[in-house]
Amino acid sequence: MRVAGREDNTLAGRRSGMKCGIGEYVHGYSEREAVRLTDQASTLATLLHHDTSYPSGSLVLEAGSGVGAQTGILAAQSGGARIVSFDISASSLATARSRLRGAKIATPDFVQGDLFRLPFPPATFDHVFVCFVLEHLADPLGALASLKEVIRPGGSITVIEGDHGSAFFYPRSREADETIRCLVTLQAEMGGNALIGRELYPLLNRAGFDRVAVSPRLVYSDASRPHLAEGFVERTFTAMVEGVEDQAVGRGMISKSSWEKGIGDLYRSAGPDGVFCYLFFRAMAIKP
After folding, report:
1. Is residue 23 situated within a structural domain?
2. What is the distance, to the nearest Å, from the Cα of residue 79 to the centroid of all Cα atoms in its chain?
3. Are 190 and 26 in contact (CB under 8 A)?
4. Which of 26, 129, 155, 288 could form a disulfide with 187 if both were Cys (CB 3.0 to 4.6 A apart)?
5. pLDDT per residue over 85-144, tens digit each?
6. Residue 47 sits in a domain of what CATH number?
7. Predicted structure pTM score
C-alpha cells in the first residue's frame, strides 16, 4: 500500500509554504549541494545514526528528506520498516528516487508536499525522523506540532540538527570565524536558524512531547582522522560555508580578501597541523 500525496511544487505552492513558516534553503539546490549532502551523510553515518533503527512492520515518516542523503542509511538500518520520504521539492525527490534505484534496500514511498499541511490522517505513523530540516524553518515549533499530529500515541520522533556556533578550530582565525558568522546571519535573514541544535530540548518540550532525551554528537578531526578531515571539514562544513560567498561578499558583509583568507584557514584546519570540532544534537521524544 502506498501513501498518497500531493504534487504541488508550483511557485504559488512554495509561497504558501513560506507563509506557513518554511524558510528559504540557504545552500541552494545545485548539483554541488546534492553531492555535499551525500558526502555529509556517508561521513557522519556512524556518528549520527548508529542508534537509529525502526522495527519491522513499523511505518516511518522521513520529513524533509531532500535528495535522499539520509534515506538510504535509514532504510538500510530499518529492514522491514516502511519508509515514507516526504519533501516540498519535487526535483529533490526525483534525485532521491534516482540515487536509490537499484540499492539493496526496500524502496521508500516518495511523497511531495508541504510540511505544514501534511497530507496524512492523524496518527498515521509509528515514528517520524527529521534530519537537518528545522534549521531552515521560520517556525520550527509549528513544524513539530504538525508532525506530532501524524504520529500515533506512544510513537516516537527523532530530530537531528547541527549548531554552527559550536564550531572551533586550530589554528585560530578571525577571518574564518567571520565567514561562519556570514552563513549564520544569511540563514537567519532567510527565516532559518543555524544555531538550532542547542534548542532541540526546549522545542520538543514546548511541542508537547514526552521523555525528551538529547544526545550531543561531537565531530573531532585532526591528522590522525583523515576521513573526517576530508569528508567533514573539507567536503561538508567548509564547502557549505563556501557556498554563500556570492551573497556574503556581494552584500559587503565581508571583504573578498577576508573571505578568501577565512575559507583558506578553514581548509587549513583539515591539514596536518589542524584541528576541527563541531557538535550535532540528536533528540528523541515520545508522543503522549
Report:
1. yes
2. 23
3. yes
4. 26
5. 999 999 999 999 998 887 777 779 999 999 999 999 999 999 999 999 999 999 999 999
6. 3.40.50.150
7. 0.86
